[in-house]
Amino acid sequence: MSPSHPLDRPVWSALTSRQASLALGDERALRFDPIYALFAAAADASAESTAALGALNISPNGMGLVEAGVMPLPPDAVVRAQASCVQMVASSLTPGGKTVAFEPLGEADGAEMLALATLTVPGPFFEKTHRLGDFIGIKHDGRLVAMAGERMKPHGFTEVSGVCTHPDFRGLGYAGALMRIVTQRILESGEQAFLHVYAAHSATIALYETLGFRVRTTVTYTVVDRPA
């Protein structure tokens, strides 16, 4: 099935375009290599594709499915979690914003990035998630205390993700400032920025709206496990 918009099925769109090199599977179903990301998608709603998706459920962390429409789950899949999220896009930023001293994050920062994400849980973050795109961060006395970066990359779009701040440094505007920088870089590259946030988190949605993001659609985020 062909989505009406690349972001209706962001995982499939990313793995069949700019992030195809990170994909496991075939034309029936694809998933990110589990050391990079949790996400997977079937090509369509057919029984063949759905079964192929189930065969890719090879990680102990399961698989994450992000769909704007209704798609069948793999046979015998166990739903670990399911939530409604809003997908937000930005084609421009609002003026202003806090200025912060930040630095690029790279391979040498990988372990510390994973530790910060594990502590704060901004979303699924694994051993090589930091390689999915460019990340920037704020350090205090040499310690990483806040970061933001990029994740899924369908053609023409880049997802803002991995936004988190150590609990001891919250309330200083770091997350918003880093998001603004990451988003501006995406826009300057000629792409649109997008992100996902739980629909129940109204305060977070309002914050992203102040940056220039708008709600595009609602998606369902489902994490499935292998049957016991």
Describe this structure in words.
By secondary structure, the protein is of the alpha+beta class. 22% of the residues lie in helices and 32% in strands. It has 2 domains: 6-85 and 221-225, Aminopeptidase; 88-217, Gcn5-related N-acetyltransferase (GNAT) (Aminopeptidase), CATH 3.40.630. The protein has helices at residues 10-15, 47-55, 110-120, 174-188, 202-211, and strands at 23-26, 29-32, 40-42, 63-67, 78-90, 103-105, 135-140, 143-150, 157-165, 192-198, 214-225. It is globular, with a radius of gyration of 17 Å. The relative contact order is 0.21.
Helix-strand blueprint:
Blueprint: H1 10-15, E1 23-26, E2 29-32, E3 40-42, H2 47-55, E4 63-67, E5 78-90, E6 103-105, H3 110-120, E7 135-140, E8 143-150, E9 157-165, H4 174-188, E10 192-198, H5 202-211, E11 214-225
Parallel strand pairs: 9-10
Antiparallel strand pairs: 1-2, 2-3, 4-11, 5-10, 5-11, 6-7, 7-8, 8-9
Anisotropy-based shape: globular
Helical amount among residues, as a percent range?
A: 10-25%
Strand line-up in the sheet with most strands: 4-11-5-10-9-8-7-6
Put simply, the count of helices is: 5
CATH class bucket of the largest domain: Alpha Beta
What is the structural class?
A: alpha+beta
Whole-number total of structural domains? 2
Give the mean pLDDT.
96
**What Rg, in angstroms, do the CA atoms define?**
17 Å
Protein name: Acetyltransferase
InterPro entries: Acyl_CoA_acyltransferase, GCN5-like_dom, GNAT_dom
Pfam family, one: FR47
Domain N-acetyltransferase: 100-228
